[in-house]
Amino acid sequence: MDKLGILKIPDFCYLKNIKGAIMKALIIAAGNGTRMQPVTRGRHKSLMPLLGLKIIERVILGAKEAGISEFVIVTGYKGKKLREFLGNGAKYDISISFIQNNNWKKANGISTLAAQKHFRENFVLLMSDHVFDPKTLIRIQRLKLKNNECALAIDKNLDTVLDVEDTTKVMVKDGHAIALNKNLEVYNAYDTGMFVCSPYIFKVLAKSTKLGKNSLSHSMRVLISEGKLRTLNNKGRLWADCDTWEDIKFAEKKFLKNLSKPADGILSKKFNRKVSTFITRFLIKTPITPNMISVFIPVLAILTFFLLSKGTYPWLIFGGLMIQFLSIIDGCDGEIARLKFMKSFLGAWLDPILDRYVDMILIAGMAYGYWNTTSNNFILFMAIMVIFADVLQDYMSAKFFIITGKKLRSSLDFPFKRDLRMLVLAIGAITSQVLVSFLVFAILVNLKVVLRAVSAKRITEAGNIPLKLSSKI
C-alpha cells in the first residue's frame, strides 16, 4: 500500500519540524480575477475548486506544510466572502488576520503595501492563485538574505506554463534577477509568485506608488536595479498560476502527474499509477479520506480470499483480477493524502503494516484454494516461505536504517517491488498456476534478501558507521 503521503518517515519529520522556519506569510487576494469571471460568476477566483480543495486552501495548506502558522491575507473584491470561508484559520490549525484593501482595482503593489504594519521582519509573500510545492517554500525561507535583499522562486523549465504570454518572465544571472517583465524577449526563467521579502520592500513600494507605479513587479524591478533581488531555482518542482479555468485544468493535470514517485515500481509507473490517479480524480471530490481507503482495502482483500479459496474457475479469474485491482487502488490513499494535505505519522506507520496483512490474506486464499483442489501439502510450505520472504525483505531495510542511520541501497538489487509481486500472484491465480507463482515469488524475493544482506555487509565494512552501532547488525 502506498504510504499515506508517500514521504518516507525521515522526510515527513523534516517537513513538520523545520528549524528556523518561523516566518509569517502575506497572501495577496484582493483582485477580481477578470480572466476567470466567465466561470466564477461573481465568486472570488481563489475559491474555485482544484482537486478537492479551494485554490487558496492549497496556498495556505502548502505554506503550513512548509512550517508557517501565521498568515495575513489582503482582501478586496468579494473580501467578505473570502473572510467568511477561511475564518480565523482555526479549522486549518493556523492563525489568519485580514486586511481589506478598498483600492483593490489598482495593481497588487497597493495590496502589499497595505500590510506594512504587520511585518517587521522577513516574511513570505504569496499570491492567492499561485499553487506550489511546499519543499520550494522550505528552501527559499532558508536563504540568508542581507542588505535588504528579497528573494524570488523561479522556474527555469520553460515548458511548465500554459499561457506564456501572460506569465512574468525573468532573466537570471549568478543567482540574481537582472530583468523581470511579462514582455521580456530574452529570458531564462519564470516568476512563480513566491517571494521572501525584507521589510525594505515596503519602502520601495511606498516610493513607487507615489509615482503611480502600483504593481509589485515594478517594485521588484527597483530591487533588481539595486542588485537586491536574489533567485531560487525551484528545480522543476510543481507550481501553477490559476488565472483562468484553462489554467485550473492545466494545474490539475500537473498535480495528478506529480503523484508519480521515483520509488514507484516499473508496473506502477507504466500502468497502476495512471489508473489510480484516474480513480483519485473522482474520489478527491468526495468526503472519502485516505484512512477510509486504507481500511477498505483489507476488507476487500478478505472478500478476495473467499474467491481464491474456491480454487477453481471462474473464481480464480475473479480473484486474480481482484488482486490486481487491490494493487492499483493501493495508491489512492496516498494520492488523496498528498493532494488534500492529510499526511499523518499514524498513516505512514500503519500503511505498510496493512500491506502485509493484505499480502498474507491473498497468499493464504490462493494456498487454501490450491490445497483444497489438489491435496498437495507442499503448497502450505511454499505459502509460509512466500509470506516470510515478503515480510523479511522490508524488515531488513527498515532495521538497517534504524541501526545505522543509512539506507540499504545496492547496485546488486533488482526491481521486484510490491507492484510486481502482486502481479505475479494475480497471473498465478488467473492461469491456475498458483504453485508456479509461489515458486517465482519466493525465489525472487529471497534472492533480494540475500543481495541486501551482501549490501549491508559491504556498507558496514566500508566504514562511516560507529562501531557500537554496526556491532548490532
Automatic annotation (TrEMBL):
The keyword Protease does not apply. It comes from Candidatus Curtissbacteria bacterium RIFCSPLOWO2_01_FULL_41_18. Its EC number is 2.7.7.74, 2.7.8.34. One of its GO terms (cellular component) is membrane. In the C-terminal section; belongs to the CDP-alcohol phosphatidyltransferase class-I family. In the N-terminal section; belongs to the MobA family. SUPFAM superfamilies: Nucleotide-diphospho-sugar transferases. Keywords: Membrane, Nucleotidyltransferase, Transferase, Transmembrane, Transmembrane helix. It catalyses: CDP-1L-myo-inositol + 1D-myo-inositol 3-phosphate = bis(1L-myo-inositol) 3,1'-phosphate 1-phosphate + CMP + H(+); 1D-myo-inositol 3-phosphate + CTP + H(+) = CDP-1L-myo-inositol + diphosphate. The chain crosses the membrane at residues 288-307, 313-332, 377-402, 423-445. InterPro entries: CDP-OH_P_trans, CDP-OH_PTrfase_TM_dom, CDP_ALCOHOL_P_TRANSF_CS, GlmU-like, NTP_transferase_dom, Nucleotide-diphossugar_trans. Residues 24-147 form the Nucleotidyl transferase domain. This is Bifunctional IPC transferase and DIPP synthase. The lineage of its organism: Bacteria, Candidatus Curtissiibacteriota. GO terms for biological process: phospholipid biosynthetic process. The keyword Transmembrane helix applies. GO terms for molecular function: nucleotidyltransferase activity; phosphotransferase activity, for other substituted phosphate groups.
